Amino acid sequence: MKGNLNKKFELHKMWIDTLGEEGEMLKLDEVDLRGVDLSDKLVEQAYLIDCTFDDLQLENIDFHSSLLASSTFKNAYLENCDFYKSDIRYTDFSNCIIKKSRFSKSDCWETVFKNATLVDCKLNNVLFYLTDFSNAKLENVDVSVATFEEAVLNGVSLKNIKGIEEAHIKSINIGTLEQPNILVDEEARKWLQNNSLSN
């Protein structure tokens, strides 16, 4: 399995390097990547659907423009990772520590960040539809031009959140999925501003 996987990574690198002229795009479905060292692998513009990245230490990994829908990163540590323009719908980042990573222009439709810590991350121009931030900690993150729609913020801790004024805040849920407490428009924006502590 591992040799076969390495061959797929090599073909993907060739595919990226030759702009699709040679090699083959990486397409993995339901693959457990916990035993794989991704530090020297190219995973940008790949299909990594329903894959397992749980408990991994991921630093300087470029996932930009990748399809990562329904994958899990539970209890992982991510630093300087790039999810720019990635499709991370239904992806589970529960209990992750995520630092200095870019999610700009990604699709976070029903993505789960329960109990996760996000520090110095770019969350600008992201679609947060039914995204679950229950009991998450967000510090020094930029949400400018992001869209919030029924995002779950129950128990969230917010510190130095940038760009709330420029965000499209349609609605947030400060209750739970089972017992929602939905705030809309200006009321939702005020809640975010009032609950975002400055230094």
Rg result: 17 Å
Helix/strand-derived category reads: alpha/beta
Annotation field: number of helices: 2
* Helicity level: 10-25%
What is the beta-strand fraction?
A: 15-25%
Element-level helix/strand string: HEEEEEEEEEEEEHE
Low-confidence stretches: none
Number of E strands: 13
Shape: elongated
Beginning-to-end CA distance, first to last residue: 49 Å
Spatial strand arrangement across the major sheet: 3-4-5-6-8-10-13
**Arithmetic mean of pLDDT:** 96
What characterizes the major β-sheet?
7 strands, parallel
How would you describe this structure to a colleague?
By secondary structure, the chain is an alpha/beta fold. It is 14% helix and 22% strand. The chain has helices spanning 2-17, 185-195, and strands spanning 27-29, 47-49, 57-59, 77-79, 97-99, 117-119, 127-129, 137-139, 147-152, 157-159, 168-173, 182-184, 196-197. The strands form 3 sheets. The protein has a 7-stranded parallel beta sheet with strand order 3-4-5-6-8-10-13. Strands 7-9-11-12 form a 4-stranded mixed beta sheet, covered by helices on one side. It is elongated.
Can you give me a brief rundown of this structure?
The chain has two helices and 13 strands.
Short descriptors:
199 residues; 13 strands; 4-stranded mixed beta sheet; alpha/beta
